[in-house]
Automatic annotation (TrEMBL):
Protein name, per record: Ethanolamine utilization protein
Native source species: Candidatus Enterococcus palustris
Organism superkingdom: Bacteria
Amino acid sequence: MKTTDFDNLVEKITKKVMERLAEIEQNKIQSHCLLGTNQKWLTREDMDYLHKVSRNKENDLVVVTELSFENLANTLNFNPQNELEQTIVQTIKEGNEFVIIKDGRTYLSLVTAGRYALKKTILDFETQLYRYGGTFISLAELKQSVSDRKTVPPYEALKHKKYLTVKDLTDRINDCQNTVELSDQTSITDYAKEYIREKKINISWTNEK
């Protein structure tokens, strides 16, 4: 086989592999129940972050990337007309948290240029959605939070805890970090000790006296 033919073959295989990896990545993101037409705004890393900071870690997180005024009204009247609205209503009924990307709200022009009564209605709707478990976050806020998570040691806040639980560790899990600095006054629960052994996490004790 000529060198050029071999190089072309390698290039084709590489392209196919990269396409497949991208497809797998997208499927992973989809498994979190990503709704709306702006799904490509979010990466797997973004979704992982949102899931880790959410209250309902046992379930797939619902993230809405596009929301119209009609979606808002139908959802809050519990009269869903499409899959997106049905999913949000079901999530509310189950008492689970969901995330709305602020940039995907198509009714923003109504808030800035609409009549006062309409603005108030929209703000009341959003407040009600928040009370039902909706969290509003902009892309800029999300990207900044993901970036901060990379630079700030995830276990930094554990230094001065009186009791260390499994939840404290899993909420800040980072495969790249395997050392936790704790005060010698900290008590570790039995489950946390098991988790530390399982994940091979090192404990660095500091003297608080």
